[in-house]
């Protein structure tokens, strides 16, 4: 029961209304009557707009206004209990499919067809700036019901977004019309880690050309499989600190990556558990047949995602190659000392011929920070390199028909080629 203090306060708003406003009140629902009168959401301790219509109607009638619930000229029925109850029920049903925190936020979009209908009824009606906005009133009312009935709390930074799209005049006798107005959108979830790749037949992303799969599996698919199934996400977006070719292994502590999960069925708090990440690591190992190992898996966020993107070209990478040298080398120490003395070495590389079909022609400067050579026999050696991110290591070894200069062959004064390549380490260097 609303006390007399609230009734007197509302009576004041009705009495102060202009003649034009009073003429409109009879064409409005209860809540729109209060909107026209610029009644605040909280009045004398009561959240007025959140009260059911059977409590609001007597307040209007007591002030000689008979509210019109079905054909309100200011909301077309959107703010009536009949429509709000239906929306609330649909939202409750949809929430059963989600595992969410006890907070929420509401967004509402009024589509063109609804706005056109509204403007047609309101032609000639002038509303003052002080009167309560339709969207704001809906959020107050619907949010109040959620807090009261679902024991959830409104929070502007909540990961749970209740999204209402009003495309046409809401009608409770059309199930699909109401159902299509409500959607639940959860904030993206970020997870990160490092992957170790032990195969020379795995691509980083699915390698499909003209509907023909050229690599049997990919790192992305091995990492996604469990996440999509467990989190119910619609999509995963993968970002890694660089990429290696199909025939190159990624060893050491692995390559850093972040995955963004979109439209998941749970909020991030539900995965912040050690058991989840242990199971993810196990599932990746099983899914890849032991060829991909997941390390340092943990919850991430948009800040880490931005940092990984920012440091894309500030990484240093350590490689190990098996190389062929046409000129026989008898004294390893002299050659190794000469190569080590040559560093740091600035090289210029045109876009390699092997990737020119998918990348624009450009000339790039890169730094070779360290070169170490160990002979296997006079013509074959293990070559360890520390380079800038974005260095084409294969081309540094064989020269790419002169498109990389200088290259290993030009330094040694002979022809050189690469037989095998591994990434040993990816180090992120922070900018100062």
TrEMBL record:
BP terms from Gene Ontology: tRNA pseudouridine synthesis
Ranges for domain Pus10-like C-terminal: 190-427
Family, as annotated: Belongs to the pseudouridine synthase Pus10 family.
Keywords: Isomerase, tRNA processing
Protein known as: tRNA pseudouridine(55) synthase
Entries under SUPFAM superfamilies matching the protein: Pseudouridine synthase (SSF55120)
Highest taxon above the source species: Eukaryota
EC number(s) from the headed UniProt entry: 5.4.99.25
InterPro entries associated with the record: PsdUridine_synth_cat_dom_sf, Pus10-like, Pus10-like_C
A GO MF term: RNA binding
The organism of origin for this protein: Galdieria partita
Signal peptide interval: none
């Amino acid at each position: 029961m609303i006390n007399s203090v609230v009734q007197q306060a509302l009576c004041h708003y009705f009495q102060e209304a202009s003649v034009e406003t009073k003429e409109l009140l009879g064409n409005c629902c209860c809540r729109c009557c209060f909107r026209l009168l610029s009644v605040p959401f909280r009045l004398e301790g009561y959240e007025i707009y959140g009260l059911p219509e059977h409590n609001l109607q007597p307040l209007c009638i007591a002030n000689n206004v008979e509210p019109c619930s079905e054909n309100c000229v200011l909301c077309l029925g959107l703010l009536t209990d009949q429509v709000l109850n239906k929306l609330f029920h649909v939202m409750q049903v949809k929430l059963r499919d989600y595992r969410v925190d006890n907070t929420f936020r509401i967004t509402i979009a009024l589509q063109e067809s609804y706005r056109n209908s509204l403007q047609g009824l309101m032609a000639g009606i002038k509303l003052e700036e002080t009167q309560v906005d339709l969207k704001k009133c809906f959020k107050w009312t619907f949010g109040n019901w959620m807090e009261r009935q679902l024991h959830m709390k409104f929070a502007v930074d909540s990961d749970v977004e209740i999204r209402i799209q009003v495309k046409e005049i809401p009608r409770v006798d059309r199930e699909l019309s109401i159902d299509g107005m409500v959607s639940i959108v959860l904030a993206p979830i970020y997870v990160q880690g490092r992957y170790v790749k032990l195969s020379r037949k795995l691509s980083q992303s699915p390698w499909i050309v003209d509907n023909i799969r050229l690599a049997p599996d990919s790192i992305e698919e091995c990492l996604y499989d469990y996440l999509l199934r467990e989190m119910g996400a619609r999509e995963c977006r993968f970002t890694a600190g660089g990429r290696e070719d199909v025939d190159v292994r990624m060893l050491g502590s692995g390559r850093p990556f972040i995955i963004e999960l979109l439209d998941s069925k749970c909020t991030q708090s539900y995965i912040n558990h050690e058991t989840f990440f242990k199971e993810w690591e196990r599932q990746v190992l099983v899914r890849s047949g032991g060829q991909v190992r997941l390390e340092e898996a943990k919850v991430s966020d948009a800040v880490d995602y931005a940092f990984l993107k920012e440091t894309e070209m500030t990484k240093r990478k350590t490689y190990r190659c098996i190389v062929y040298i046409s000129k026989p080398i008898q004294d390893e120490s002299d050659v190794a000392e000469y190569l080590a003395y040559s560093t740091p070495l600035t090289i210029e590389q045109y876009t390699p011929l092997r990737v020119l079909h998918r990348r624009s022609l450009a000339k790039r400067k890169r730094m070779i920070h360290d070169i170490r050579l160990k002979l296997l026999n006079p013509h074959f050696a293990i070559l360890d390199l520390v380079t800038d991110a974005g260095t084409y290591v294969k081309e540094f070894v064989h020269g790419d028909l002169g498109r990389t200069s200088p290259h290993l062959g030009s330094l040694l004064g002979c022809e050189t080629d690469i037989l095998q390549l591994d990434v040993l380490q990816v180090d992120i260097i922070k900018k100062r």
